Amino acid sequence: MSANSIKHDLQRSSPRNYGPLYSAPMTVWFTVFFLAPLLIIVLYSFLRKGLYGGVAIGEFTLEAYRNLGNSSFVIITVRTLITALAATLITILIALPCGYFMARSKNQTFLLLLIIIPFWTNFLIRVFAWMNILGNNGFLNDLLIRIGLIDNYIQFLYNQSSVVLVLVYMYLPYAILPLFATIDKFDFSLLEAARDLGATKAQSMIRVLLPNIRSGLYTAVLFTFIPVFGAYAVPLLVGGKDSYMLGNVIADQLTKARNWPLASAISLVLTVITTAGVLIMLNLQRRDANRTVDLKTKGAGN
Q1: I need a surface site. Which of 12, 41, 156, 169 has the fewest CB within 10 A?
Q2: Banded model confidence at residue 297, pLDDT cuts 50, 70, 90
Q3: pLDDT digits over 197-208, tens only?
Q4: Is the pTM of the predicted complex or chain greater than 0.85?
């Protein structure tokens, strides 16, 4: 039997590579539902607004991007960024002790159920529930008046504070779950060792726990900041005229002004900012992982 015939028989008997076939559904899904809409947004952002709205096909211009330099858009962008950062910071500060308590608890399944229960209720129903709580004739004002703390209602609703409050409530589970998953894998004996070496409880938390759960922190920040940055329904329903955010601008440009190029340009800017945030977080996670591997390698070598 010749060497060529043996090689041919081995090639025929070897399993075929079905990798591309297996990944075809994901490739189609990614192309149809992400790449194609993104390319349409990019194209529309460089077109001129049509006479009766929409876009004028074939008339390319940078007018939409020049409009982004308008002072009103700059103010709304800064307000959106500040709101998103404030809501994200408050969410993480609340989610950290919640995730820690859940990781140390013996009733993790029950606590996880309590975190997941809000997902069983429609998003808008939860927003309207907060409107009933914070409204002028709502539960909170009625309670304060009944116990004699105030004589007239307080304007809890339709301001920036109510927007941040409801956003924190809405996206708190998205921060708690990744933090809980990360803290649950943490070796809590390291905290006891730090206390034995003279560290206070707060120092052991900051210097030992937080550095070891950075991956969970990065994920929690991403899961909170990105949806908050593009929020639309919450500022519309519980915010006032000074709570207008970029998501509201996009909706108004699409439905009221019918300025699709400007809406596409704003959407593209949002996409670039969020993508940059994801890439930065992934880079930080990769650096932390490489640093951990290096420390383990050096420890093994010693």
Answers
A1: 12
A2: low
A3: 888 888 989 889
A4: no
Distance, CA of 300 to CA of 302 (rounded, Å): 5
46, 261 Cβ separation under 8 angstroms: yes
Domain of 203: which CATH number? 1.10.3720.10
Lowest mean pLDDT among 113-117, 214-218, 283-287: 283-287
Residues 6+ apart with CB under 8 A from 279: none
How far is Cα 116 from Cα 177, in angstroms, rounded to an integer?
A: 9
Q: Report DSSP letters for the chain, one per residue.
A: --HHHHHHHHHHHSPP--HHHHHHHHHHHHIIIIIHHHHHHHHHHTEEEPBTBBEEEEEE-SHHHHHTTSHHHHHHHHHHHHHHHHHHHHHHHHHHHHHHHHHH-S-HHHHHHHHHGGGGS-HHHHHHHHHHHHSTTSHHHHHHHHTTS-SS----SSSHHHHHHHHHHHHHHHHHHHHHHHHHTS-THHHHHHHHTT--HHHHIIIIIHHHTHHHHHHHHHHHHHHHHT--HHHHHH--GGG--HHHHHHHHHHTS-BHHHHHHHHHHHHHHHHHHHHHHHHHHHHHHHHHHHHHHHHHH-
**Segment 230-270, tens digit of pLDDT:** 899 999 999 988 888 999 999 999 888 899 999 999 999 88
pLDDT the model gives residue 215: 86
Q: Is residue 2 part of a domain?
A: no
In a domain, 133, yes or no: yes
Domain assignment present for 54:
no
User: Nearest to residue 126, comparing CAs of 62, 188, 190, 171?
Assistant: 171
Q: 45 in a domain, yes or no?
A: no
Domain that holds residue 133: 62-297
